[in-house]
TrEMBL record:
It comes from the Eukaryota. Coiled coil: none annotated. One of its GO terms (cellular component) is cytoplasm. The keyword Zinc does not apply. The keyword Transport applies. GO terms for biological process: autophagy; endosomal vesicle fusion; protein transport. This is TGFA1 protein. It is found in: Cytoplasm. It comes from Crypturellus soui.
């Protein structure tokens, strides 16, 4: 049964990025507030300002204004971008080197500070250091079976830790001292402070791309065996039931209460509250899906799109209109963390009342009586 939870809205059209140069492909994206950064296969970074517009009918559109673009000087793709807004720095991975550039003018920092020998990297969103003018960066090193942790300041970098892993790591997410790693044959949790590790479950890196994503404090989302989206805490347990993805998921994101997944043909939306698939959006040739401060962005090689969530109240009313009372109540309870307490209580009472009338009309008097109560 479907719910209209999201609409797909174009943000950057291919003409804005590449004009008539057909060979240019989008390799990576980063979004920080209104700033959208795009890295391409011909070693350029593009900076756009995203402006969200809402029509009187409530329709949301995005206008992207190009600020500038910068050539990094290599013959390689820009493979990853991460913004460190507190430092006004963009961390750029190209040719196994992470360079620090200014977020506004895209110029490298004058000191030339960089991290060499990185295959991929991630930022620690729950840092252990406590210095607001420093970000913690975790890299998979070009050295075999090695993870390195760095502190990155405005104009310098400092290595903090080097950790060796039982097998070659392919993907990493970090929370505090905990690393969640996709190795060659399994996922593990590793505390880089104590060295303690915890096996999660097996998977085969030869057959599919691993997905390791931090979704909250001490909790990760992983692409598990059999096309399952699995949740795992730093203690190696799962507090939520898995969601059923397709076998070839290439990206995932969280927009509470939904888990969104991308495969070669579709974007699928599952509820974290009842694990049911709620929506399927056709989307061909997508290869990037990321969430930034709750905003889910997807990209093909040629364009960037935003998944705009419909207001939860509208989704609940749509469910009630089609007499799906249980689903509406589950979603309403789940909406509690997104809505101020007083507003939620007024809304929830009204929803219970509507649900009660629906059950009453279907002659389900006991259920209606409970809801009216």
């Amino acid at each position: 049964m479907s719910v209209k939870a999201f609409k797909l809205v174009s943000a950057v059209e291919r003409e804005m990025l590449m004009g008539d140069k057909a060979h240019i492909n989008i390799e990576c994206i980063e979004c920080c507030g209104k700033n959208l950064y795009i890295g391409t296969n011909d070693c350029f970074i593009y900076h756009f300002l995203l402006d969200e517009k809402i029509s009187t009918a409530g329709k949301i559109t995005f206008a992207a204004t190009k600020q500038l673009h910068k050539y990094l000087g290599f013959k390689k793709s820009v493979s990853e971008l991460k913004a460190a807004s507190a430092l006004t720095r963009l961390l750029v991975l190209c040719d196994n080197t992470i360079t620090l550039v200014n977020m506004m003018n895209l110029e490298p920092v004058p000191t030339g500070a960089r991290i060499k020998g990185a295959v991929t990297f991630t930022l620690n969103e729950n840092p252990v250091n406590g210095d607001p003018f420093c970000v913690e960066v975790c890299i998979i090193s070009v050295k075999r079976r090695t993870i390195q942790v760095f502190m990155v300041f405005e104009d310098r970098v400092q290595i903090v830790k080097e950790v060796f892993t039982p097998e070659q790591p392919y993907a990493v997410a970090v929370d505090g001292h905990y690393l969640c790693l996709a190795l060659t044959t399994q996922y593990i949790i590793l505390n880089y402070n104590t060295g303690a590790s915890q096996d999660l479950f097996p998977y085969c890196s030869d057959e599919k791309r691993p997905i390791v994503k931090r979704i909250g404090r001490q909790e990760f989302l992983l692409a598990g065996p059999g096309g399952l989206g699995m949740f795992a805490t730093v203690d190696g347990i799962s507090q939520r039931a898995p969601v059923h993805w397709s076998e070839n998921v290439i990206g995932a994101a969280l927009c509470f209460p939904y888990v969104v997944a991308l495969d070669e043909e579709f974007i699928t939306v599952h509820s974290m509250l009842d694990q049911q698939q709620k929506q399927t959006l056709p989307f061909k040739e997508g290869h990037i899906m990321q969430d930034f401060e709750g905003r889910v962005i997807v990209a093909t090689n040629k364009g960037v799109y935003i998944l705009v969530p419909l207001p939860l109240e509208k989704q609940i009313q749509d469910l009630l209109a089609s007499h799906r009372v249980e689903e509406a109540l589950v979603l309403a309870k789940g909406a509690r963390r997104n809505i101020p307490k007083e507003k939620f209580q007024v809304m929830y009472k009204r929803i219970l009342q509507q649900a009660g009338f629906i059950q009453f009309a279907q002659l389900q008097f006991l259920e209606a009586k409970e809801l009216f109560r």
